[in-house]
Protein 1
Amino acid sequence: MTEYGMLINGKWTTTRKSSPVLSPATEETIATVPIADDRTINAALEAAKKAQRDWGRRTGVERGNVLRKWADLVDQNRDRLARLLSQEEGKPLSEAHGELDLGNSWFRYYAEFDRRIEGEILAADKPNEQLWIFRQPVGVVVGIIPWNYPMGVAVRKIAPALIAGNAIVLKPHEDTPLSALELGKLANEAGVPPGVVNIITGPGETVGAALVRSPIPGLITFTGSVETGKAIARSAADNVTLVSLELGGKAPFIVMDDCNLEEAVKTAVFSRFMNCGQVCICNERTYVHKRVAKEFTERFVAEVQKLKVGNPLQAGTQIGPKVNRQELEKVEGYVQRAVKAGAKVATGGQRKTGRGFSKGYWYEPTVLTDVRQDMEIMQKEIFGPVVPIMEFSDFEQGLSYANDSRYGLAAYLFSNDVHRIMRAIRDLEFGELYINRGPGESVHGFHSGWKQSGTNGDDGRHGLEHYLRKKTVYLRYQG
């Protein structure tokens, strides 16, 4: 077991209180981390505020070189970091390596903006004047990240914040803080100046709330649940602090009768069960055209039954445990209430038991049929290894079911009809569409939700925009 500190102003700091970090596979304590108090929260914010001025005055090339060095160090520690990530979050080791590589690609991608943060020169209305628009850092960024991708999302926030010239105070989720803290150790090696990156730990209800109430941050960027995002927005409003929210999802997976059914089945399984279904863009509800519904469902259930559940550190494991007991009980409750409302369990439907599963937070890969659109299981985010399958009669009904949600993050469509594809692109009310393929963003794309799935967004040049603010200058000179 390792005792961690928090990274504040380049130094490792502890407090009187600490909390254990449990392995979701074994329930064993693998580390302890401090619980930040008012003193350390304020110290982190003040350190960031002080350090940002000099960091923001460095050239983009200087900042980019630090990010490149940091990325090199992550590569050098890849296997060690992936194993730690798998231990604290519960995802299979192969997926942990994938998360690490994706996260590290944000360091390298945003380092490329070292010469690409540009201003504008506009034609002036008056003679002997210049009109300029500068882009400058927002100052201090507060990043609050979830437990499902603790390494990847940490870099997703840190890299654009730093290349834009900001300092950041990062708060990882209390269940999975170790990946971010290990990144912090590498930050010092990479040459990040003290105070530019600060990482503090503790519950969102106290530590996170204190961060968003502070007048110091110029931006709060949050990835997590809808209800927490709403609370953050309300608190930030008192200081008129800019907020970027990437919230929950209830992604529909639409299967048309003209598609490659084998590919649709394969992709639908992967899109639901990666990371034990704990992904905001996962296939949360599968809609299948009535002409192929029986065949699709039979094939789908057969593939789900082949999935290997087990020790996330063991080769060949495809599904690990839920991240904590509360999440396990939440998923269990969704299934029980769905069955009570009339749904049928095609496979799974209970906690995983037997040898190797007496400890930890295990749930069987589950498929539900005979569901209705108005059921809770079709409307609320499950965030676990459970998928309901529902038939529809025609394309218009499929689109209607898909859009019947308060969420608008991601959606999937399998069809070979270009006219249907174009209509879906026009009419689906989601910020991210995957057509004839599975999930996975590109670092230069734009990951943003519609409706209650968020505001602003991450990735690419559009994801960089809210880390910068504009300053307009009217300059008169002697003619």
Protein 2
Amino acid sequence: MVIEMSTGMIRGLGTVVVFVAFVGLTLWVFNAKRSPEFAEARLLPFADEPQPDTTQASATRSTRP
């Protein structure tokens, strides 16, 4: 028995695969268990910024009115 795959059948299977991947990714992203990981990842762009040194700033600032 030989099954011929038409272009429509291949496109339909491709659509099903992409839909299943989309649903899986959506469930993975909105899973409550992953919230702490994503909260940490949200701050990654700011990780390489230098922290302000408060001791130097207060030493050079005048306290006179």
